Structure formats: structure tokens, C-alpha cells
Amino acid sequence: MTRIINDFTLNIATANGTGSQSANLIILSSILEMGVPVSGKNLFPSNISGLPTWYIIRVSDAGYQAPGDSTNFRVIMNKDTWVDDVEKAEPGSVIIYNENVKLPVERNDCTVFSMPMTKMARGVNPKLAKMIANMYYVGALAHLLKIDDEAILKAVTNQFSGKEKAIELNMRAIGEGREYAAENWLDEVEHQVEAREKDPNSFLIDGNEATALGSIYGGVNMLAWYPITPSSSVAEEIIQWLPKLRNGEDGG
């Protein structure tokens, strides 16, 4: 099989409030930690718990940030958008899904992998199973894409900084997901991540935070916003950064 290195797009379909954002950022940060250019985009209609969200990750040695012409991997976790997500998968792409949702994935033209993510998460912590389940697709993707264990550990440690119990639980789930995929998924995939020399000056920032910082340095004097929308974090980031950056007696 011909390998395609550092050039693919992931689409992860979940629901707000399930802990998926942490899982997605761990994937994003792990790939960046390996020195590979990567970008993420969160698509959602409203930041209300339970409503759908799609997180798109673009990996590109050339540094491309747009999603690209095709989606190579789909992770399907949300029962409310399940049918559409399955239908939108492109022929020849890879589908990874949580089989505990108990909805069909009938796509003979795709490579389909299933995992009992919720059931496995209950074995780690029954009360937090809904959130921990997302870490199993992190482990699954780590196996398929050859993401380094050390990069995963650093990303998890940064994501849950100072919360040793959370780091332990999530690393256990990721490890179990990686192990399950290695033992049960026999098909190989053509895309994978290959480490590059990391730029020590590289870092991740989301568009809304960049907009917030630009507004502060641009001299913002008045702030108004509508809550729980995709743009609300612009205001939230301004509120967070303003006291740190504009602390002069004249407000500068």
C-alpha cells in the first residue's frame, strides 16, 4: 500500500458538552508536537449542551489550513446527526464509530472500524463514561495514524494541567483505544503522521482568541455580544486578556 504522509483531513462528529473538545485538542496538539503543520476548525450552530458539533482537522506538510477537497477520516459519535454523517462519508474514506450508539453504518465503499467506546469507558469510570468515551477515538486515531505515545502524553498533560487524576484516566482510555484498534482492526489505512523537526516558535491559537487579542491591541473601548454562539468566545477571551494587557492608569 502506498503511504500518504502528513496530508489528510479528519471530521469528528460529536455533541457539545460531551468532552469532545478536549479529545479533539489532544489530537491537534499531539500532531503539532510531532512537528507537523496542523489546523483545527470547530463547526457548530450554538454552544448549547447537546447540540451537534463537527471538528475538522487538516494535516498538511505544506501548511494548508483549509479543509481540502476531501475528508479522509470521519469519526461518528453523535446519534442526532448519525444518518447524515454516514451518508456524507466519501467513497474510499475511513469511518470510525462508537458501536454502543447502536445505529447502523452501512457503507461497503468505505473502510469501517467500530469500537464499543462507551462500554469501555464505563470500565474506567462509570460516572464519567460519557466524556471519557471520546478518548477512545483518540487512541484509535493514534494507532491508525501512527501518532507518537510521547506526543499524546504531552498533549494530555497540557490539556489537563495539574489534574493528575484526569491525566491518568484519560491516558488509560487512550491506551485502551489504541490497544483495541491494534488487536481488532486488521485493515490498514494509507494516511499516517510522520514526525518532522519541530519549530520551537510554533504554537496553537484559535481564531476567536486571535481576534480578541487583535481587538485589544487595536484599542477596543466597548464590548457587546450574544452568549452561547460560535463567536461568544471572542468576548470571553477579551474579558480574560484585558486585565492582563491593559493595566495602565490611562487604560492603555
Question: What are the defining features of this structure?
Answer:
252 residues; alpha/beta; Pyruvate-ferredoxin Oxidoreductase, domain 3; 2 domains; 6-stranded mixed β-sheet; two-stranded parallel ribbon; 8 helices; 41% helix; 17% strand
Short summary of the structure?
The protein has 8 helices and 8 strands; from the N terminus they run ββαβββαββααααβαα.
CATH superfamily of the largest domain: Pyruvate-ferredoxin oxidoreductase, PFOR, domain III
Structural class: alpha/beta
Poorly predicted segments: none
- Count of structural domains: 2
Order of helices and strands: EEHEEEHEEHHHHEHH
Count helical runs.
Answer: 8
Oligomerization: single chain
Descriptive account of the structure:
- The model has no long low-confidence stretch (mean pLDDT 93).
- Helices cover 41% and strands 17% of the residues.
- Strand 5, helix 2 and strand 6 form a beta-alpha-beta unit.
- The protein is globular, with a radius of gyration of 19 Å.
- Helix 1 runs parallel beside helix 4 and helix 4 crosses helix 6.
- It has 252 residues and is an alpha/beta fold.
- The chain folds into 2 domains: 189 residues, Pyruvate-ferredoxin Oxidoreductase, domain 3 (3-Layer(aba) Sandwich), CATH 3.40.920; 39 residues, no CATH class.
